[in-house]
Amino acid sequence: MSKHASPDESGDESVTLETGLEALRSSPEFRGPAERIEDHDHANDHFALIYESQAEQFAAAVPFIRQGLERNERCLYITHHNTRTAVLAAMRDGGIDVDAALESGQLSIHDEDETYLRNGTFDAEETLDFLGGAIEEATEEGPYDALRVTGEMSGVLREDPEGEELIRCEAKANYLFDEVDGIALCQYDRRRFPSEVIRDVISTHPLLIHDDRVSHNVYYTPPEEFFGPEKSAHEVDRLMGTLRDQTDAKVALQQRERFLRESHRITSDADREFEGKLESLLELTCDWLDLDAGGLTHLPSRDDRFRNEFAVGYGGGNAGADTGAGTDTGADADTNGNGDDVLWTDPGEGCYCRAVLAADEPVGMADVRGTDWEDDPIHRDQGLACYLGTKVTDGTRPYGTLWVGAREPRDREFSATERTFLELVGEWISYEIERRHRERALEESNERLEQFAYAASHDLQEPLRMVTSYLQLLENRYGDAFDADGEEFLAFAVDGAERMREMIDALLTYSRIETRGDPFEPVELDTVLDDVLEDLQLQLEETDAEVTIADLPRVEGDRSQLRQVFQNLVDNAITYTDGPPRVHVDAERRRNEWVISVTDDGIGIEPDDQERVFTIFDRLYSREEYDGTGIGLALCQRIVERHGGDIWVNSEPGEGSTFSLTLPAAAESEA
Fold first, then answer.
1. CATH 3.40.50.300 fits 17-228, yes or no
2. Helix (H, G, I), strand (E, B) or coil at 128
3. Which residue has the higher pLDDT, 273 or 140?
4. Interstrand relation of 582-590 and 546-549 (parallel, antiparallel or unpaired)
5. Which part of the chain is the Histidine kinase domain (predicted)?
6. Is residue 404 within 8 Å of 418, Cβ to Cβ?
7. Fold classification of 521-664 (topology level)
8. How far, in Å, CA of 573 to CA of 578, rounded?
9. How many CA atoms lie within 13 A of 222 on its CB side?
10. C or N terminus of the chain, fewer CB within 10 Å?
11. Residue 619 — very low, low, confident or very high, per pLDDT cuts 50/70/90?
12. CB 36 within 8 Å of CB 199
């Protein structure tokens, strides 16, 4: 099979550089990184393994052979300082069925006399002839899909060949394995070879395995440059090029870190609105990528066209309906109810924003010339010749795209780092859009709830007042005519109407927690509890209750609503008890919030009922046992949640209850 051959019947592709890396990635013996190497010219390569211990040697060589056997490749191992027995033992330890592989002929072990030194001396051409013949025998004349060779190169030291002859052989082998379906791993023991030979080995291998790592060799030198009279000049060029590349990489890294810091500063600025952050992020991205414009598009259901919600460049733009001024890319301008321009785009299938929505990763086109995108109306009408976009969602479905581009083609493709940066910005925008949708849905829900509460307080109150009035009229005019049962029935009806009125009023109060609350401000809880105890003074005296209060903090909140919370909690503590109530209110600081606790010695709550007590109108006791509407604790929970806190209860039946809630600490006042 050639390097362009079709996959074999097992589904494996021809042997390539990537298959060699995959062997190391999946190996329990090899513990170092074996990352994908981009922009590599050779389809099939041979590696150089530079090691300093037998463990390091076998950690790469054993998985290399094991993968070849699994892929139906002919595998050769050339020994020298390790005995055949040691090599086979290492293979067995690595999970290879050595006996079956040897018996079938798929695996063979050779020494240097059969390979490198067939004629008693090392000769580069003869070695390459041997490898070429082995590849041909394994693939064209045999039942195997490729040849895989690994050898202990220290065998050549026995004849002490000239270093240049050895390196010339290694350099030529790069091209031997690039042209046929074979792969090789040359093993160099750093303890045995002179440093100058190791240096040249590094120079002539595009891929190195060392220190449990695989490296794309920046010091690799093509043979035509390594040999010949211009060797020194080429070496100077390479050294300077390496220094230039390292400097450029360092500058690029610093630049990327600067842009990441700046993007974090923008998104975390609590004083800026979403539109201002979006504008700054787009300008930052265009600056980094050296592009002209960017924007956020939305794909609503209308006409299957994209709406430009925001744009920078090409004259600029702003958020809302009047966005992307000057960026109407091949689409018509519409107007909204306020008369503002609404700009729409309609890219073709597979182009620009539509390509982004169909992909899971950012889509980029550095130069649309000569591609299908060149016929797209966005390019024809606006000349957008360079584009990078990423998908934006609203949490459950695609919302639109975040894009940047330019009218001039880019001289290089978009890098993985650049794509990732835009994708991160897009993820932040998706989060913000989802959050705003949730807030809008909550506002709409609250509006509907308030509308219902309004109907309850007016439309339902009116017939209820009529029922109550007629019941009272009936009692006043005909009360003497009723017998004992009639009077009892009438009392039940009046009481039921009154309780319904109380429940409707409570429901109205519950529904208006969010919409009718006061703005938050620093609140002294000590004064709030003083007011609560004053309101409950008569009840405290009648029950002989004792209420103790620790030093309470200042919190951030709605004073009126917090008073409702503590009045409900203290009232419940006094009510749900079999003896003189004993109530204690305490506070504990927890980072940026306070935990306030109201503890009583009352009747307690069963464990299964401790969640139910916060459910609206879900009463644990009958009205004959304890009076009330059954909404008090639900009201407390809704108020505490409005303050960004939680409320819960810890209780044991017969041993009292502790209701705890968290409230945000007020900001420290300046001295």
1. yes
2. helix
3. 273
4. parallel
5. 455-667
6. no
7. Heat Shock Protein 90 (3.30.565)
8. 11
9. 9
10. C
11. low
12. no
